[in-house]
């Protein structure tokens, strides 16, 4: 029995040109979904069905892409949660952050809250799904992984630790079908009070030296980096030295 | 201890007063005498005295006497204490506490909280479980709430949100500040926001008055908006607190925490191949230099410790390690939390590369080398013997742990 997986996708923006493209993390969500469910994967988008970029997801080998039709600037949350509640999915995958608009990364959290499902952040791999329980690997910073046990159905976000998305091919992209669903439209109230503007480069933080005298400032500018106050163990046997090192490593939690 | 140099006016006065009983003892060291071959020898270092700013002064009028001995006085710089006896409101901060300590991101966040709190408000830090931090006072924490309990051990986002909700009910803070980081804060803040049904400001990098600016989308745009109650702030959102000391008064929750059955269970960390982790983001680096003689033993130790391997330039140039393993100015700048340097002298080019490391451990023969000055723990001795002992110790530790578990 294959799992019923739904991947949510959005329209991305190229980091330099800003042109629409398939969103990097959403493409990874589709890739992970394809690996889990194969042809049974269902891909869902809330927005404009006439956006040509949507076809680049179809180009990953999908036969169909479901679109909940909405004009730009409307709130995707209510329609998505409405749809997902009755869709009977066991796993819903999303990217962790949109590439356009606010990009707050709140959508999966709000969806999980509304649906009452558990949420796994930074899914890297699904190891097994058995008897209503999934064992998954979560990506942590610094290349680490953590194993989690989570009840089905669950929502998961993927980030750059998830498998790399396959290329999008032109033929399948043109053959694939965009299936429209009519939904109620709700305006997003964020943009009434907020203003999107081109990103300002952030100034580099200056190293401020608070010194009372010129001699101190000179010292601060020329001194080598030194921790000072480090502990130096001299004349110990190698075993005692090794014990001291190991104690620090265990305290820091790097040796388990 | 500070090394401010102080003059001793009394000693100088005694040296000037030929009738004083201690006059002879206070004479400056002889700085010119006749050598065995009749040549006049001069000790140029004995001339003059060290002024209060640490600069050498030579008084050529001949009036200067004595006091040449360097005296240092212990001056403990005490920052002024900022007190908030009756806070008008709270600014709550939930630091990441990576490795049980405040990260630099946490400190920036506390600096931002301090700005928002002004003189009437108090910064309340909420910390889960045990911590090793001792500098909350200088980081700007007025009140500290430690939520203890086994339910917060490991990865427990759902329980932590419950904890934060209880804190929210009791203190009703004006703002909640969390680091928008991958090491926990970003996730916890969003979960908390979803459970409160409040819209947070994310990736905030500037707060001015009642408005804030955060990055939006993929970083191409900024979003300016009115300041909400929940703020997820980016790194370097504000300067950390540096000029005041704070009380760190412990506070407690008055209600017991509601318990819920966790829907996500933490089964623990998974062993990953340390060699596959990019050096720049590895957490624990075991680095070898010219002082490593037995490279087989070095690799064996790295495997035993489960550390990512690094090397100094000399080790790379000599062909013992691959080029992509070089740490330093012309190699990789690493950010490891723990960096272990075996037989590395600590040339400035190497030290630059480990500037961001938290704890440095050095094994070296030479107690005077620069790496020892940088290190938090140094063991002086031959690397081969210490590495062998280290392997044995790690194995004993692992076996002991296994026996405990069984
Ligand atoms: C432009 C430029 C860029 C450079 N960039 C880099 C860079 O990116 N990274 C880098 O690392 N270097 C760089 N260097 C080189 C750097 O200046 C040093 O030469 C180099 O870091 C020294 O490496 P080392 O500490 O391994 O060797 P050494 O300086 O030879 O130090 C060996 C240390 O091992 C100790 N030792 C010896 N035998 C034992 C033993 N049996 N047990 C324990 N300890 C022992 C010694 O006491 C000594 O402290 C650069 C240099 C230049 C000019």
UniProtKB/TrEMBL annotation, chain A:
<keyword id="KW-0249">Electron transport</keyword>
<dbReference type="InterPro" id="IPR014729">
    <property type="entry name" value="Rossmann-like_a/b/a_fold"/>
</dbReference>
<dbReference type="Pfam" id="PF01012">
    <property type="entry name" value="ETF"/>
</dbReference>
<dbReference type="GO" id="GO:0009055">
    <property type="term" value="F:electron transfer activity"/>
</dbReference>
<keyword id="KW-0813">Transport</keyword>
<protein>
    <submittedName>
        <fullName>Electron transfer flavoprotein beta subunit</fullName>
    </submittedName>
</protein>
<dbReference type="InterPro" id="IPR014730">
    <property type="entry name" value="ETF_a/b_N"/>
</dbReference>
<dbReference type="InterPro" id="IPR012255">
    <property type="entry name" value="ETF_b"/>
</dbReference>
<feature type="domain" description="Electron transfer flavoprotein alpha/beta-subunit N-terminal">
    <location>
        <begin position="11"/>
        <end position="189"/>
    </location>
</feature>
<comment type="similarity">
    <text>Belongs to the ETF beta-subunit/FixA family.</text>
</comment>
TrEMBL record, chain B:
<dbReference type="InterPro" id="IPR014730">
    <property type="entry name" value="ETF_a/b_N"/>
</dbReference>
<dbReference type="InterPro" id="IPR029035">
    <property type="entry name" value="DHS-like_NAD/FAD-binding_dom"/>
</dbReference>
<dbReference type="InterPro" id="IPR014731">
    <property type="entry name" value="ETF_asu_C"/>
</dbReference>
<dbReference type="InterPro" id="IPR001308">
    <property type="entry name" value="ETF_a/FixB"/>
</dbReference>
<comment type="similarity">
    <text>Belongs to the ETF alpha-subunit/FixB family.</text>
</comment>
<protein>
    <submittedName>
        <fullName>Electron transfer flavoprotein alpha subunit apoprotein</fullName>
    </submittedName>
</protein>
<keyword id="KW-0813">Transport</keyword>
<dbReference type="GO" id="GO:0033539">
    <property type="term" value="P:fatty acid beta-oxidation using acyl-CoA dehydrogenase"/>
</dbReference>
<dbReference type="GO" id="GO:0009055">
    <property type="term" value="F:electron transfer activity"/>
</dbReference>
<dbReference type="Pfam" id="PF00766">
    <property type="entry name" value="ETF_alpha"/>
</dbReference>
<feature type="domain" description="Electron transfer flavoprotein alpha/beta-subunit N-terminal">
    <location>
        <begin position="91"/>
        <end position="271"/>
    </location>
</feature>
<keyword id="KW-0249">Electron transport</keyword>
<dbReference type="GO" id="GO:0050660">
    <property type="term" value="F:flavin adenine dinucleotide binding"/>
</dbReference>
<dbReference type="Pfam" id="PF01012">
    <property type="entry name" value="ETF"/>
</dbReference>
<dbReference type="InterPro" id="IPR014729">
    <property type="entry name" value="Rossmann-like_a/b/a_fold"/>
</dbReference>
């Amino acid at each position: 029995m294959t799992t019923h997986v739904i991947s949510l996708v959005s329209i991305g923006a190229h980091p330099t040109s800003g042109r629409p493209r398939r969103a990097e993390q959403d493409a990874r969500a589709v890739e992970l979904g394809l690996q889990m469910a194969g042809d049974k994967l269902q891909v869902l988008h809330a927005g404009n069905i006439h956006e040509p970029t949507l076809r680049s997801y179809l180009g990953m080998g999908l036969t169909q892409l479901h679109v909940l039709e909405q004009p730009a600037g409307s709130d995707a949350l209510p329609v998505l949660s409405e749809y997902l509640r009755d869709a009977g999915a066991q796993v819903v995958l999303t990217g962790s952050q949109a590439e356009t608009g606010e990009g707050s990364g709140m959508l999966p959290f709000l969806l999980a809250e509304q649906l009452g499902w558990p949420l796994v952040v930074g899914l890297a791999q699904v190891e097994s799904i058995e008897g209503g329980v999934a064992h998954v690997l979560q990506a942590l910073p610094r290349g680490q992984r953590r194993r989690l046990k989570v009840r089905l159905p669950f929502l998961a976000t993927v980030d750059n630790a998830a498998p790399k998305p396959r290329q999008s091919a032109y033929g399948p992209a043109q053959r694939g079908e965009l299936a429209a669903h009519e939904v109620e439209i709700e305006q997003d109230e964020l943009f009434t009070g907020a203003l999107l503007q081109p990103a300002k480069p952030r100034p580099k933080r200056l190293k401020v030296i608070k010194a009372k005298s010129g001699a101190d400032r000179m010292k601060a500018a020329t001194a080598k980096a030194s921790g000072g106050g480090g502990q130096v163990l001299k004349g110990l046997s190698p075993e005692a030295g090794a014990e001291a090192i190991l104690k620090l490593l265990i305290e820091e939690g790097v040796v388990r | 201890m500070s090394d401010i140099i102080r003059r001793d006016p009394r000693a100088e006065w005694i040296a000037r007063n030929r009738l004083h009983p201690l006059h002879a003892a206070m004479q400056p060291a002889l700085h010119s005498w006749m050598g065995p071959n009749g040549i006049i020898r001069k000790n140029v270092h004995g001339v003059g005295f060290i002024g209060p700013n640490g600069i050498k002064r030579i008084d050529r009028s001949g009036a200067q006497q004595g006091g040449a001995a360097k005296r240092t006085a212990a001056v403990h710089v005490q920052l002024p204490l900022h007190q908030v006896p009756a806070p008008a409101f709270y600014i709550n901060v939930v630091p990441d506490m990576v490795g049980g300590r405040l990260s630099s991101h946490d400190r920036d966040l506390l600096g931002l909280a301090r700005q928002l709190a002004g003189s009437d408000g108090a910064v309340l830090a909420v910390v889960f479980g045990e911590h090793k931090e001792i500098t909350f006072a200088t980081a700007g924490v007025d009140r500290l709430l430690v939520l203890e309990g086994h339910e917060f051990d490991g990865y427990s986002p759902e329980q932590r949100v419950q904890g934060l909700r209880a804190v929210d009910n009791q203190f009703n803070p004006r703002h909640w500040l969390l680091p928008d980081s991958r090491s926990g804060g970003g996730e916890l803040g969003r979960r908390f926001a979803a459970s409160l049904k409040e819209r947070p400001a994310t990736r905030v990098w500037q707060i001015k008055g009642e408005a804030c600016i955060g990055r939006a989308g993929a970083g191409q745009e900024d979003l300016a908006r009115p300041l909400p109650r929940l703020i997820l702030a980016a790194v370097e959102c504000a300067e950390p607190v540096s000029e005041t000391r704070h009380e760190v008064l412990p506070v407690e929750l008055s209600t017991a925490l509601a318990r819920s059955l966790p829907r996500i269970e933490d089964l623990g960390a998974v062993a990953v191949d340390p060699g596959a982790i990019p050096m720049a983001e590895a957490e624990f680096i075991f680095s070898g230099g010219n002082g490593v003689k037995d490279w087989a033993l070095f690799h064996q130790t790295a495997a035993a410790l489960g550390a990512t391997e690094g090397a100094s330039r000399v080790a790379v140039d000599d062909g013992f390690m691959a080029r992509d393993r070089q740490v330093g100015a012309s190699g990789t700048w690493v950010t490891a939390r723990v960096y272990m340097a075996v037989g590395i002298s600590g040339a400035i080019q190497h030290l630059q590369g480990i500037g961001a490391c938290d704890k440095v451990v050095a094994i070296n023969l030479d107690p005077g080398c620069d790496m020892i000055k940088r290190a938090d723990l140094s063991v002086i001795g031959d690397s081969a013997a210490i590495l062998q002992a280290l392997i044995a110790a790690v194995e004993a530790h692992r076996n002991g742990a296994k026996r405990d578990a069984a």
